[in-house]
Design goal:
458 residues, Aspartate Aminotransferase, domain 1, Aspartate Aminotransferase, domain 2, 3 domains, 7-stranded mixed sheet, 4-stranded antiparallel sheet, 41% helix, EC 2.6.1.64, cysteine-S-conjugate beta-lyase activity, PyrdxlP-dep_Trfase
Length: 458
Amino acid sequence: MFKNVAAICLHLVGPLWGKKTGASLTQCFHQTLTMAKRLQARRLDGIDYNPWVEFIKLSSEDDIVNLGQGFPDFPPPAFAVEAFQHAVSGDFMLNQYTTAFGYPPLTRILASFFGKLLGQEINPRKNVLVTMGAYGALFTAFQALVDEGDEVIIIEPFFDCYEPMTLMAGGRPVFVSLKPSPTRDGELDSCSDWQLDPVELASKFTSRTKALILNTPSNPLGKVFSRAELELVASLCQQHDVVCIADEVYQWLVYDGYQHVSIASLPGMWDRTLTIGSAGKTFSATGWKVGWVLGPGRLLKHLHTVHQNSIFHCPTQTQAAVAESFEREQLHFGQPSSYFVQFQQASQRSRDHVMRSLQSVGLRPIIPQGSYFLITDISELKSKMPDLPGATDEPYDSRFVKWMIKNKGLGAIPVSIFYSAPHRKHFDHYIRICFVKDESTLQAMDKKLQKWKDELGP
């Protein structure tokens, strides 16, 4: 082998022989051997491409109304901003480390606040972990519980990080799709019409199933799973001894009288459920990156192990601001003065505004029951413009979004990215819109849509 390497090296440096190159034969050997090694870990195979990078870049151009990314483009509530200012300018020790698994005032208020909602006595030290956003909570959960060969059931459409996080942990994603009911003429479809097939769901559980991830209210669909649906999932998880990872970051944003039910509150489910929340989504401060996991000590102790051997600690000041914000919200909970009540009402008005606007250009929004998002059916436009530019294997919704950004100045996200590869072609006629936006953004959207409507003609 070394003779071959030497031959390669001599071939490379031969033309420079006798010149002052500054590289010895020994250095050449070292560089050749180093460059021949595999650089990336195998856990990264197949997950290096992230569509968000491409679509966020396209939507960041001047004069593009960005309805793709899921963040509010308006300030957090005044009390949350003031809490952050207190944390930055007050006690200087908040510039230092706090307890590794969470700032004690925050873990205490989370335990108190959610203990009442879940009907549990939550120990702030054993049953709460503060993480780098809900994203960090998800990653920590997968790394702590999913082993090589374990199966994880993922309900489609799904928040797209679930699949790569499963793969990075060595697990195998097992997909089950929500099935939409046939379209009714003259009516808008609702995400409540997208249902799990109980027989199909049951068939996905095997002796290798380790976890099921449940997102309610869901991203991108906006579906709020009913109690009956949750009881089905709970029954199967208990029957097959499966952990439920409950992603509930949009729990305060539920519309039209629907009710959010935490699956951990159902009989027998606390002991096998990790409930994940987000201060960013709760207080409209996504950049704070404060999330949490609630669950039984027998599960949380393994997440603690991952946490202490990875990030170890989350920023103290943002945790302090979230703690103060929750303390304020606990005093106003359920009252008209509650931010959760006010934010839900404002978000529902924005949702209705966006749905009306999308309908004006022939799109068919699916009415969401909750979350920041709705998906809209672009089938009519697909039939009129079937041959948009793009690679032959690129899903239609992806090509449509790129066309819409370039030609209409409106950014969105293709729904096919929220599906497993075999199912994308069946759901490539939907795009995702974020409606939790400032009034000025919605007005800018309206202007773009009105121009589009004028171009379509009568």
